[in-house]
Write a structure and sequence with these properties.
single chain; mainly alpha
């Protein structure tokens, strides 16, 4: 825990990886699919499920781009 002038204010340690917070508006049916995926795969949070889905999709996207180029 980091120290501040006021010891009662918690300052978390720096993140291991730089992150950016984003908010997206999604259709209800897509959110339901994300929840279903998260529960089926044992994710502890919706964020964890979304992160995994995005990473998988972007890896596939990157591979497809290499095949085209």
């Amino acid at each position: 825990m980091s120290r501040t002038a006021d010891d009662l204010i918690y300052v978390p340690p720096p993140a291991k990886h730089q992150t950016v917070r984003r908010v997206y508006v999604l259709p209800r049916d897509l959110v339901k699919q994300i929840h279903d995926y998260g529960y089926a795969n044992g994710h502890q949070s919706e964020v964890s499920a979304v992160r995994e889905l995005l990473e998988k999709a972007l890896v596939g996207f990157a591979l497809a781009g290499k095949e085209e180029g």
